């Protein structure tokens, strides 16, 4: 998943490194970490009216909370947050990519391709978006050949 770096926004950027193997303790620690992130983003969203943040900043908060839910395999909740992020900033490529990734994981390949295609039109040099777009096209091509 992609996160964006906006230094004027008070939130943590998450970098996830996939380990070749992990034990159950690592999984528990990771789950706790993403739950704490989700809680932190929820608090920031709740307090956003008090801080008078921009719609673009609010879109990033929803996107990042969605990512923390995605990492906990809460796909429906993640989709809700990516949709909310796109209500606040329809041009947020990262939210389109992330929503497309969830669509892909849920087997909705055509919807995933639409999101990836739009994300690619907004951020055509992003390697993750390019890879996601190409993977969706490959899967759909295979399905059509059956």
UniProtKB/TrEMBL annotation:
Residues spanning the signal sequence: 1-24
Pfam families: TPR_1
InterPro entries: TPR-like_helical_dom_sf, TPR_rpt
SUPFAM superfamilies associated with the record: TPR-like (SSF48452)
PROSITE patterns per UniProt: TPR, TPR_REGION
Protein name (record): Tetratricopeptide repeat protein
UniProt keyword list: Signal, TPR repeat
Keyword Nucleotide-binding recorded: no
TPR-type repeats, residues: 59-92, 93-126
